Give the backbone structure.
Amino acid sequence: MEGMYEQFRGQPRLPKFAVPKRYDIKLKPDLVACKFAGFVDISVEVVADTKFIVLNAAELGVDPHSVHFTDQSGSEVLEALEVKLFEEDEIIVVEFSDNLPLGLGALSIAFEGTLNDKMKGFYRSTYEHNGEKKNMAVTQFEPADARRCFPCWDEPAYKATFKITLDVPLGLVALSNMPIAEEKVDDKIKTVHFEESPIMSTYLVAVVVGLFDYVEGHTSDGIKVRVYCQDGKANQGNFALGVAVKTLDLYKQYFAMPYLLPKLDMIAIPDFALGAMENYGLITYRETALLYDDKHSAAANKQRVAIVVAHELAHQWFGNLVTMEWWTHLWLNEGFATWVSYLATDSLFPEWKIWTQFLEVSTQGLRLDELAESHPIEVDVNYAAEIDEIFDAISYRKGASVIRMLQSYLGPECFQRALASYIKKYAYSNAKTDDLWAVLEEESRQPVSKLMNLWTKQKGYPVVSVKVKGQNLEFEQLQFLLSGSHGGGEWIIPINLCCGSYDTGKSFLLELKSKSLDMKEVLGCTVSTDCLMDRRAWIKLNVDQTGFYRVKYDEELQGRLRNAIETKCLSAVDRFGILDDSYALCMARQQTLCSFLALMGAYKEELEYTVLSNMVNMSYTIARIAADATPQLVDYMKQIFINLFQHSAEKLGWDPKQGESHLDAMLRGELLTALVQFGHDITQNEAKRRFDAFLNDRNTPLLPPDLRKAAYVSVMQNVSLSDRSGFESLLRVYRETDLSQEKARIIGSLSTCPDPDIVLEVLNFLLSSEVRSQDAIFGVNVSTEGRETAWKWLKDNWDHISKTWGSGHLITFFISAIVSPFSSYEKANEVEEFFASRMKPSIARTLKQSIERVHINAKWVQSIQNEKQLGEVVQELAYRRY
């Protein structure tokens, strides 16, 4: 008999001989015992001769006597002959004595399960109410965890309708995808019947049961929108509510399709592994991604809430209404939602310059895709365990970036018309990447498939080298890899460039490995060594950074661009691109650190948030690599960065100015944090003064939310085993606040302490009951001095970490944060050895990428050590006052 079942095991997809059409699900969660009981009636269409039904189930107990199949007429009930659960395959095989009747029938199953603490499936989250600890019941089904709540065909292509009923204690709020149809009360239990949903995938089903308050609004066409959160926090939902109401109206116009459910609920969950989840009609969020407190949230928190809400609402069309056929096409959901969220946020808050900030999205995509261990946007996924790892910067950020590149190439109006056609054509259905290209091709009459398949089906991206040769500009493309090796990738690249001004430009497709252009003919300007000092003579490729590629200029062109930056001829977006490309080339050892530091000097008067924010992050990495390569130069290196950031920090000052921009508020905090980390005495002393005032009065105007990270980091720079007072003070603030954003801010600051003994205490604190498991990841980015301590801690606690976080994607943060910063081959070998016997599919890709980063760092260290002029250059720059 066992042999009969083997055919269903080890398969990536379920067999197709039966298809679900409708689920009628009844769930009864017990919030005290943390268990649930359930019953499901599934309307199934049997489409091929079979006496088996195979569906997904995991961590559920199924009562075999309850399993039966009823034919369409209801006259024939077939009892299951055998019900077999295969936990490893997460399937349940139901065998009947005879072939099932073709056509519609109903499969009935009773089951039970545990409300787990893993933040997946049907799980429990804890909260306090009137000083008492309570549980709520929450679902998180994407990518493949609906099977942990009820037996189902848990694949995105098996769309069905869902009728959900909940038995819950009286006095609690029960929510699902649809509005409540009716409620019945029996003693202390209320039975809540929800309306039947439209056709949708299992991963979008949602249920939440707990004690909640809410704020409410309506869209222009009367759709009720609510933001739910814990009692007493309702006013923190107002900002997100306003964003949601306006965004629903905006998307209705953009997609030429209204939001199709009668209500939209958004709810803040205290324990939540992701940022948010787009369940149809009931979107779940981390508190930090939904709630905004005027007094205690920073400007960056406000921006994050707006972007995340816009992202999740985009999914109601892109993902929920039109769904990817299989996880290979996940990027269709996530890349589009990321790109559209910036479109919406820009419309609502134009003063945020959000398309300039989109560069951070592109850069995160580029940073992952320049690894040999990257993956294509369209990635083969065979098993559920592999899906979590592709919720990464490729699916989201490279996905969004190539969409922006395509929109820029085709034009926004044509692109919008095509998207509206695509949504109309595939509504309530599933689509693949090729389906989208076909619609865009039809609308634009451009070879979209030919162009885009190269960007989505192969990993990596090109670097375009450009040089002047006589009166020609010569272009060449190569795959860019940080490792220094040459990949074989080749792309069709939409190139745009300008010469001397943004009015003189040219666009073309680079379809071959190389191309030569006559300058006079193209740009109406002559390039020669005589006009090097002519401020019009600069040439910039990838104008506005809309292309997903890097540019390498010859020395002559690089020099002109440096001059153009100093004379303020270039836009913030292009200044960002030049510096970021140069930084990547430096890391790949195609440019010296000396020349990169010289280029950074051209940004001494930079005031744009996005450019400076990226410079701050670069400086942290360079300081860390320099500490390994040339420890004798570290103090000089820190002084260079202090000199670089002081000008803009002094211009902004410590105190917010009346009517200043949102971006200035964000920038002030980042610059001051950098200055305290690099040891700038004056900034550290002022930070301590303000922190002391804050300890005495939590509402002091001396330390508004945007400055707190800088003050907290400053405090931790001076903490040691012999002087723990600052550490204890911060822990006190942590314990007193109930705001998730403040807790996350403190955790992220504690681990910056340079004392390894304190770092160890902080890391152990992350494992304590005082830190929610979702928040531990904020504390694993430790100081350079704490790296060895963190690695030993990871090894010592691996079994516990693996058990606690191993079933989701959060475990990958522990590995990448602790392993990636190292820069020696010996450490890479040590890491490989440790994980050799501890490998799991869910961490394999992250581990390979982290080890590759260590190798890249090691090569970079060697390259820096070979720079003969570095000591002289660094000392000269350190003493230069801008």
